[in-house]
Predict the structure of Protein BatD.
Amino acid sequence: MKLIKHIVIIAIVLVSSMANAQVTFESKVSKKKLGINERLRIDFEMNKDGDNFNPPDFNNFTVVGGPNQSVSHSYSNGKRSYSKIYSYFLAPKGQGTFTIKQAVIEIDGEVYKTTPIVITVTSAVQSPKDGNSADYIASENIHLVAEVSDSKPYLNEAITVVYKLYVSPDTGVSNWREINSPKFSDFWSQNIDIKQLSVQNGTYKGENYRYVVLRKTVLYPQKSGELEIEPLSLDITVEVPTNRRDIFGGRLMQQAHRTVSAGKRTINVKELPAQGKPADFTGAVGNFDFKVSTSKAELNASESLQAKVEVTGSGNLKLFQLPKLSLPSSLEVYEPEHAENVKTNLNGMQGNISDTYTVVPQFKGKYPIPNISFSYFDLKTESYKTINSNEIVIDVLQGPTSQSNNQDITAAGGDKQRVVLNSNQFVFIKTDTTLTSTKPSYFFKSVGFWAALLLPFLAIPLVMVVKKNKDKRDADVFGNRIRKADKLAKRYLSEAKNALGQKEAFYIALDKALHNYLKATLHIETSDLSKVKIQELLHKGQVSQQAITGFVTILENCELARYTPITQVEMEQDYERAASAISQIDKEIR
């Protein structure tokens, strides 16, 4: 019996302790910093009814309202919740830092106290804010923050910008609209896809908040010095609590609109050190491996092999050029095919890039591919590193022997070839003669004489027809504008081809060619050439979505070219895509 009695007593104590542990009594203020001409609201909230509530002495404040009492009951998943709040509105008596002391209440025979709160009162503000205003509550409880992983990176070092929207626990967000998108001038940028927004718990300036990650962007600075990131701005519909209650005791919410901005961020980009910079350095920054490989080591003449120059690792893989392969002159080499297998996450680019050369030997022999070097800046050690490839020997087993020498070729570029004489070396000297008559001829009454006499009379009707057509064509102002734009498109496309290798000149000419082509094809002025307008008009012209997407992609490449390092191969690819897109639209448009 004694054992049962002890068990009952222990159970009663545990239940009582659990019940007490569930009781909360806390104080909340509308703001912790205010001007002397503003008001402060303080709430004392409990989740269980109590007795003998004693507010603190508001010695440094004047009570201008309250206490206001509100009670609410609610049920969720079969569980009952209760809330009781005592609210006061206070006006500060002077400037300084003051402490609102503890409030006390008795609940189920136990005494509970709130935590003291420190309030800072400053000089008068120009526009006093009502602490109970929905707009003010929204401004205090919604914050958009741009978190930058590193504000002092090296040139071409990856940094991330994460945009977070912080919302206080008592406030809700029903909708938002993007007003201004962040601009990343002088950065190579790529957004990281966020499949689904998820609410997480965190802190903002020491206070508990909920937040969602709206956008993640990876940036590679393309210049040194101070670079600015333009802010992201949102128009948000905010749900803020009021003092009113519904018939069930739940607090009613009020909507307010709030514009928030992440603010400009300044990034101080450090120049890569000049000391120790290798001569073959092309801007690679990160951690890389480098190798040169061939698809075959032995083959016959006129067969082909592939020689691949490849860089693997993490860093600015898309923003530097691979070293060129040096091959003997006796090997026929085609322009390399560039390939990229790169993924971008919050740590930056990772993967590999390569140039693949197609090589066709013409003669029998051994051909060495000398080692080449690749240099990069290692961020961990903050120093330059150089990797050398191994020498590769290509053995051509069968085929004609080079006339320059019968020995195996042992050096890139080969030896100088001697001149080989043969029996046909003087074939350019003519040995047959062709004689012509020297008898004088007279112009009078000749065919030329009668032609010169009659042609002016015959030309009169032709001139009249040509003039009539010209007048008609000159009167066609709209048609002339279209024909002029078409000629300009062809001219600029030709200029773009001539400017291959010169990034600025090439993309300016290509952009002008595309816009003049659109003017000629869609019959619109340059001022109307937005991407949305272009797509709408091309759709109306029954152009396929594939052709429209290709054309718009080329326009976007022209816009981004000034901020992105571009190789000769990429320029040639963009030129071919532009010519192909124009040709495809010409075939399809109605």
Q: What stands out?
A: Confidence is low (pLDDT under 50) at residues 15-20, 405-423. The chain has four domains: 20-129, 136-269, 286-396, 479-588. The helical segments are 2-21, 134-141, 447-475, 477-498, 503-522, 531-540, 545-560, 568-588.
